[in-house]
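Notes from hallway chat w/ T.B., transcribed later so I don't forget. T.B. wanted the structure written out for a chain they're using in a teaching module, and asked if we could keep both sequence and structure tokens in one place. Agreed to drop them here.
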Amino acid sequence: MEERQEHRGFAITVSTRDHRDGGVTVTLSIERLSRGGATSEASPVPKPERYRSPLAGQEAVGEAMHRAIHAIDDALGPRNPFGD
């Protein structure tokens, strides 16, 4: 399963691979977007984070997206109320 979202100028990609004994392996990647909405070729390709999750399918994807969104927000600080 794979899902991609954009948040505050970053593309978040989450993919999962099921395990026979339960849970999934999650691969999480965050890349900066260029102004046109494509990933920026000038920035280095980030190393994806891989970890094992006891959650399955869409729950694991949702948890990883939530984790990535909070990491981006923590790094950028509070949103500007007049537009980001």
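Follow-up for T.B.: The mean pLDDT is 86. Might be a good example for the class.
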